[in-house]
Specification:
2 helices; 111 residues; alpha/beta; 6 strands; disordered N terminus; 31% helix; six-stranded mixed β-sheet
């Protein structure tokens, strides 16, 4: 698989029960045509609020959460996504153009 520019994959092991990590949700099913837009909004919100990490719950829940780690250098953000399910990883890759656009609208560059 090709590594998307500006995003990094880590090992799919996702632990649960870390209550210090903010939890966000995308209620739309992963395969919904508007999922990329909603996912991008949630990730951009995470970066805009200066959070260093977050957990994103997806629908259906059986697909597991997505862990997001953020590194922000001035107006350039580097993101690391950890998702256990291949369907979710594919949806994130497909959402990258929408994420890039959402971040640019917020005055941020995806590095």
């Amino acid at each position: 698989a090709v590594q998307p520019a500006g995003a990094t994959w880590v090992a799919p092991a996702v632990s649960q029960g870390d209550y210090s990590t903010p939890v966000l949700e995308v209620a739309l099913p992963v395969q919904h045509r508007d999922w990329a837009s909603k996912f991008s909004e949630r990730v951009t919100l995470t970066v805009s609020e200066g959070l260093q990490s977050a957990e994103l719950r997806v629908n259906p829940e059986e697909l597991g959460p997505v862990r997001i780690r953020v590194s922000l250098d001035r107006n350039e953000a580097s993101l690391v996504f950890a998702a256990a399910h291949p369907l979710v990883r594919a949806a994130i890759e497909e959402a990258l153009p929408a994420l890039r656009e959402s971040m640019q609208q917020a005055g941020l560059q995806l590095g």
